[in-house]
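#lab-general

N.A. 3:47 PM
ok so I finally got the sequence cleaned up, no stray characters, all 456 residues accounted for. can someone with queue access submit it? mine expired

B.Y. 3:52 PM
send it over

N.A. 3:53 PM
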Amino acid sequence: MVVRSVCCNIYSGFIMHQRTNAHRQGFNRRSNEIPTFETGSPTASTSQRPYGRDHNSSARNHSQNGREYDHSRGQKRRGESPERLPDKRARDSSEDGKLNRRSSQQSSPRTGSPSSVVNNNYIVPVSRGTEKITMAIWNYFISHQMSEEDLKKKLLLRKSLLSIFTGAFPNCRLFMVGSSMTGFATKTSDVDMCLMVTQDEVDQKRDATLILNSIARALKSCSFVRHSQVIRAKVPILKFYDQVSGVECDLNVNNIIGIRNTHLLRHYAYMDWRVRPLILFIKKWARFHDINDASKKSISSYSLSLMLIHYLQAGIKPPVLPCLQQMKPEMYSPKIDVRRLSLSLQDKIDFTSQNQATLGELFLGFLNYYSFVFAYNNEVISIRLGKCMSRAEVRNPGGDSMQWKFLNIEEPFEGSNTARSVYDLHVFTRILRVLRASYKTLENSRDTETILSRPF
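B.Y. 4:20 PM
back already:
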C-alpha cells in the first residue's frame, strides 16, 4: 500500500519538476572531478593515477590516442604500460632535453589518428609474433573508449532525473552503475542507473515493476524523454532515450547488487592497464559473432567481464589480477551500506603483477582457456574466490538448481549464475564453436581481421 500511494504522487512530482526544465539548464561544473555513484563528492578523475605501481595515464584517461611501437626508438619492455611521449616544447624545456617519467605521464596528449605512427603519443608494449593483435586491441580501445564529454552528458542526465524523482521520493538516491562507472564503456554505451527509494528490500517482481510503470507514464510529460518502455525481467528496467544528450538509459529500482558489483569491477578495471583494452575488444569480438546478448540466450557483457577477470586471476601464471574479495574483505563485504561505497581509487591495494604478457598474448590466452582448458561440465567461475569451484560448491541462492546449465559464473555477491541466460544447448554449442574457431584462426594468422571478417 505504501508503494502504491507513493506511485500515485509521481505524476504531480514529475510535472512540478519538469516545469523547472532542469535538464536544459545544465549544471554547475565547479570542477572536472567525477562524482561517486550518487552524491557528487569527488573521487578518481579520469586523469587520476590508478592502482598499482606499473600503471600510467593510459589506463585511466578517456580521451587519449595510442602509439604503435616504433622499433627505431628501442624495444619497450614487455608488460610495461604504454608510455606517452612528451611534446617538443616540453622536451626542449626540460633538463638534458628529456622529461622524467612522472612529468611525461601528466602532460596533455596530442591529437592524432590511433593507426598513425607519426602522430601518436604512446609506445605500446608488444612481443614478437603478436604485434598486430596487440596494436589492433590498443587502437580499438583508444578510439572507442568513453570520453570525458560522454561521461559529462550522462552525469547531466542523472542530475536532471534526480531533481525530478525527488518530487515523488524526497529521500531517494540515484546511482550511476554499470560500464559507465567501471571503465568498460564505449562511446555508444548506454547508461545504467539505480533509483534507491528505500534502504529496505523491494520486491522486484511486483513493487519495482509498479514503480517503473508509474515513472514511465509520468515521463511522458518530460520533453527530453523518448521511447520509454518497461522491460520485465528478474530485475525489471525502464528503458528510455534522452534526446538532449543522445544517451539511452536503463533505470532499475533498488538493485543493490548492481551497485556493489560496479564498485568491485571498477577497482579491477584499474588494477592493471591491460584490463580495460581487453574487455572492450572482447565485447567487440563477441558482438560481431552474435554471442554477446543475453536476450538471445548468449553471454551478457557483465558475464564476459567476469570471464576475463577470472582468466587474469586463475587462467594464467603468474596472475595479472589478484582476488580483491580475499585480499580486502572489509572493502567488499556485502554487509557494507552501499551509501558508504565510493568509486575512489585512492585506497591502495598492495599488488603488482609479475606477469608481463602483452595484450595480444593475453587475448590469445583468453580464447585458448575458454576453448580447451575450462571444464564447462563441472567448473564454476568465481572471482570471489579467485579460482574455479565445482558445481557441488555453489551457494545456489533461492534453491534454484536449474540456473546452473552450460556456462556457470558465480555472481560475486549474490551467488547466482550470471550466465543463466545460456541455457540452450544449440546456442552454447555455437559459443564454443566461435571460441575455438577464433583461437585457431588467430593463432595461425596473428591478425585480428581474420576473426572479424566473417562470423564463425
